[in-house]
Amino acid sequence: MNQNKVARHLALVSLSSAILTACGQAPRAQNQHADASVSASSNYVTDVVSYVDPLIGTQGPFNHRQAGNVTPGALVPFGMFNFGPEHAYTEDLLAESEGISKKILQEKKRVPVSPGGYNYQASRVKGFSFTRLSGTGCLGASGDIPVMPFTKDVTFSPATDPINAYFSAGFSHDNETAIPGYYQVGLDNGVNVELAATTRTGIANFTYEQADNAKLLFRTSYSQLGSGDAYVKVDAKKGEVTGYVTSGNFCGYLGEHNQRDYYTLHFVAKLDKPISGSGAWKDGDVFKGQNSAKGGMGYGDNGWPDIGKGSGVWVDLDLDAGETVQMRVGISYVSLDNARENLKKEQAGQNFAEVRKGAQGAWEQELSKVKVESDDTSKLRVFYTALYHSLYHPNIFSDVNGQYIGFDQQVYTVKGTQTHQYANFSGWDVYRSQLQLVALLDKKRGSDIAQSLFNQASQYNGVWDRWTHNAGATGVMSGDPATIAIANFVAFGADDFDVGGAYQSLRKAATEPTEFDLSETGCPVFCRGQKPSLDQWQTLGYISDQSNSWEGASETLEQASSYFSLSQLAARLGKQGDAARFVNEAGFWRNIYNPSATESLGYIQGRNKDGSWKDEFDPFSGHLFVEGSPAQYLWMIPHDGAGLAKVLGGEQAMSQRLDSHFRKADGSWVLYRDSAEFADVSNQPSILSPWMYLHTGEAYKTQQTVRETMKQLWLDAPDGIPGQDDLGQMSSWYVFSSLGLYPKYPGRADLVLSSPQFKRASIGNLTLNAPQASAEHIYIDAMKVNGEATLNSWINESYINEPVTLDFTLSKTPNKAFGSAVENRPPSYGPATQ
């Protein structure tokens, strides 16, 4: 641990002690974190929140596709309210941003500093917003209602300050604290900010070193990438600020389809110190003494809001030097009345320390569902931080009274066994392992999320959107991840929802082309159809390059996984005819495998409608498929690894090709953004590939590759997440991989195996013992399942309903017999006529 980490760790423990003291609990000794929580005996670590460092993954180049883009802030697991800082550009950072942001500003457009609003390299804050998404690749994900503690005169409109050079304040990471449920930063303008949150509310303490000119700016219209409308009003007598913002525009700069409004967030903010005056601005005008403002930023003519647009208010505060003003905030996507009710019922007179303690307790409860034993505190920090990031999303979207806004913009109330409606589903990302992790830890929550997706589809003409944001469908990315998600929920035991109704809806979507499937509306990035060019799938047996999809070859692979998951759901429901039909369609990936794609090797290749192969083909091009190359997508056939080995020329040929995918000719590893010829295990198309060795009989290479990926790419540092985290998907990959497990199959809960990096672990009904676990002991020498020795490199779904114990014996050298025989390899599922 370096000196900066030691200092930050001691600060976190000191702050934790202070809050426990304030709540009437005895403080812990500062050095107790590592020594008392990890014992030499077989004890799981305790006080797991103390291992979480929310700043891991916050640093990355200003080319945001290469940053973790995670956001520190005050929130509870899956909370609607995520209270945290919005960073501002400075001139030096504009120079680092490859000219992109500088060019946009020269065109008089406004651009955020980073998706999620936070970047560790930034040094200025422009406000503290109520909502945010973590780890997105696109800009425009919420960032609603930034509130800025300010100490200068408002001499011109904040709307005309393009990089917030005036309407912001500097800060240092030396005066910043981020722990689960709490965020603190000391600003260079003399204001110390502390934030905490409940599910739907937030609380802030703003302590002003100097009382002169103490203000709060409510930048109501300034959602991350603009707003269609906004309104704010100050009631000085009540000490209240209320209003709303209507926004959307997620990824809007990539195409006109999402340059629109699709949600409204209402808020009430209550201050405990007198409001002595107020002012407002709209666009370029400032109105001193005014107590309300209305007007959005718009989305410009290309998805980037114009500089000079927007509205908000400020309030002058009657304070003494060193005094604190406390702000309590309730939000709702339904109404101001609901925002008030959320605030009243969730905070109910609690003081700041009690709200913070409750948030920390919620995280401790959730994170403790995965127990591990290790004496490596750095690995524990990376692991529990990854688990923490895995549990941000989806977000509770319904209010305390059960109301929520549907995708048809009507008000609904949760009913039946559903407890909460959820929103924010980055389907293309999270179907791979994050939703499985959520369901494994909490079947009821998984069931509610599944019902939420069904509700959204029912309110959206039967279309299951692939990337939902608040109350809107965005259509972002490719494939049909919702089908896989629903099948996965059921497989992992989260079946307390209308499974039959969901299946019938998904079956209809898979068999009956809609007007949206046949339309180019929004395509290629925002295709509105759930199954783009479904007619081609049904007639050609693949999606061609002359289709509505975003690259026909990668769309075909995505849909193959979707149909396999639907076949598994059909089988669980006793619909054997459907199961046989859909597993056959899952084999359509073979129709785009060209054995002569290059002079020496076959690849998945784009195909024309007439059956000919697409002329342009470079297996190492990162532009022929969605966010990946043919070399990377070759391995994205999770359900039929044996079938893939067969078309590649056998298991030895498959193993050799995997070797050359993960290593250069000199034997050196290449796992991250070297060339599209090689693996990029920081992004979704490649994250399955290390596990495909299991179908070659060389399971030890999976163990080796997974361990090396974790070692190289996942770090105990601000730049410790490789690529954007995508609402916890990449973090969930790390969580499963750390345990030596992976949910490889769409629609099944079977788990394939690698070697655990912890001596002991527990998750759900699974207990894993690996006493030799270390950085050197990376190979499985032997394994027992419930006391019975086995050479299988996978386990079946039985652990979902009954306790299963896995006992690993790990070694520094591989046992090549483990997982080698065909009968010991994970199953493959191909068409009956294969």
UniProtKB/TrEMBL annotation:
<feature type="signal peptide">
    <location>
        <begin position="1"/>
        <end position="22"/>
    </location>
</feature>
<dbReference type="InterPro" id="IPR005887">
    <property type="entry name" value="GH92_a_mannosidase_put"/>
</dbReference>
<dbReference type="InterPro" id="IPR014718">
    <property type="entry name" value="GH-type_carb-bd"/>
</dbReference>
<dbReference type="GO" id="GO:0006516">
    <property type="term" value="P:glycoprotein catabolic process"/>
</dbReference>
<dbReference type="InterPro" id="IPR050883">
    <property type="entry name" value="PNGase"/>
</dbReference>
<feature type="domain" description="Glycosyl hydrolase family 92 N-terminal">
    <location>
        <begin position="51"/>
        <end position="332"/>
    </location>
</feature>
<dbReference type="InterPro" id="IPR041371">
    <property type="entry name" value="GH92_N"/>
</dbReference>
<dbReference type="GO" id="GO:0005829">
    <property type="term" value="C:cytosol"/>
</dbReference>
<dbReference type="InterPro" id="IPR008928">
    <property type="entry name" value="6-hairpin_glycosidase_sf"/>
</dbReference>
<dbReference type="Pfam" id="PF07971">
    <property type="entry name" value="Glyco_hydro_92"/>
</dbReference>
<dbReference type="GO" id="GO:0000224">
    <property type="term" value="F:peptide-N4-(N-acetyl-beta-glucosaminyl)asparagine amidase activity"/>
</dbReference>
<keyword id="KW-0732">Signal</keyword>
<dbReference type="InterPro" id="IPR012939">
    <property type="entry name" value="Glyco_hydro_92"/>
</dbReference>
<feature type="domain" description="Glycosyl hydrolase family 92">
    <location>
        <begin position="338"/>
        <end position="811"/>
    </location>
</feature>
<dbReference type="Pfam" id="PF17678">
    <property type="entry name" value="Glyco_hydro_92N"/>
</dbReference>
<dbReference type="GO" id="GO:0030246">
    <property type="term" value="F:carbohydrate binding"/>
</dbReference>
<protein>
    <submittedName>
        <fullName>Alpha-mannosidase</fullName>
    </submittedName>
</protein>
<dbReference type="GO" id="GO:0005975">
    <property type="term" value="P:carbohydrate metabolic process"/>
</dbReference>
